[in-house]
Amino acid sequence: DGGITQSPKYLFRKEGQNVTLSCEQNLNHDAMYWYRQDPGQGLRLIYYSQIVNDFQKGDIAEGYSVSREKKESFPLTVTSAQKNPTAFYLCASSIQDRVRELFFGEGSRLTVL
Amino acid sequence: AQTVTQSQPEMSVQEAETVTLSCTYDTSENNYYLFWYKQPPSRQMILVIRQEAYKQQNATENRFSVNFQKAAKSFSLKISDSQLGDTAMYFCAFMKRNSGNTPLVFGKGTRLSVIA
Question: Does the pLDDT value for residue B39 go beyond 80?
Answer without folding.
Answer: yes
